[in-house]
Structure formats: C-alpha cells, structure tokens
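Escalated from tier 1: zinc ion holo job.
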Amino acid sequence: MRCPYCRHADSRVVDSREVDEGQVIRRRRSCQACGRRFTTVEEATLAVIKRSGVTEPFSRGKVITGVRRACQGRPVDEDQLALLAQRVEDAVRATGCAEIPSHEVGLAILGPLRELDEVAYLRFASVYRSFTSLEDFEAEIEALRRTESPPAPPAPAAPAQRHPSGRSVLALEPAP
Ligand SMILES: [Zn+2]
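Tier 2 regenerated the structure:
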C-alpha cells in the first residue's frame, strides 16, 4: 500500500482490527520511508448491477434513503431503518454473489419492510413493482391479508402441556 504522504510503495501493518462484525478490516500502517502512519480499510466488494448495466457498490445508505421515502409520516424511526438496511445487506451477502442485480436488492427490502410497516410496504411495493391500477393495490393488500403474520423470528416452542395423567395434550384443547 502506497504511503499517502510520500508515495513510498512499502508500508508495514502495525495493527488490524475487524469492524462491523468482520465485514470490514481496518489496518493501521506505518510507512517504511517517512514513518508516518495511515489507515486502510478493506471490505469485500458487494456490487449492485443497475438496470442500465452499470455497477455500483452496495450501500446501506441508499437502501435507507429509498425506504425512508416510503415511510414518510409512518411511525418508523431511524434505528428501525438502520436495522432494516442491515438485514437487507445480510440477506444480499447471504446469496453468496459478489454482484447482484438491483431488483434483487428491492426484493430483499420487501420482506423486512412488510414486517416493519404495512403501509410503507405497500408504498414501496407500488413503486418497485410499478403498480398501475387499483387492482394492483387490491391484489397486494389481498396478499397481505392472506399472510397476516409474515414469517416472524422463531418463537420459543410452547412447552407441551402435560395432562395430570401424564399424557401430552394439545395446548389448545378445551378444558374438560
Ligand atoms: Zn511515507
């Protein structure tokens, strides 16, 4: 890594630490020639391929900007937006592809956004899926109703109730 002060080509790593749960590595380097120190940041590339074919680095900030617009006037705070963007990034990284089409980023947003706020989800989906008619909204709302509770994080399994006799009984079984 070239020294940003004197342009010397050799530097020595004096410290390196992982940030962002290991997705970023920061290295503190010391120039072999002038002795000055500088920092480099290493991050696995995650590129988004836009419809135009142009690629750009994945950005949580862009996810947040897009979602924030859909959340206007809704009870969604910045922390929730940041968490959503983190979930989107995790989902995108989990695909194992270094380059992903932008529409897949949109897809990855839909799930967490629906859990966050259904109105914001509808707004976002209407733009993202180019709704052109009331019927499109109706169909989406219908789909929302059908899956009222989207896949939530697994709840701890309710312990099976034991009947005094020792037999397992269903928790929902009406009491005799
Ligand atoms: Zn130097």
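The pocket of zinc ion is lined by residues 3, 5-6, 8, 31, 33-34, 36 (CB under 6 Å).
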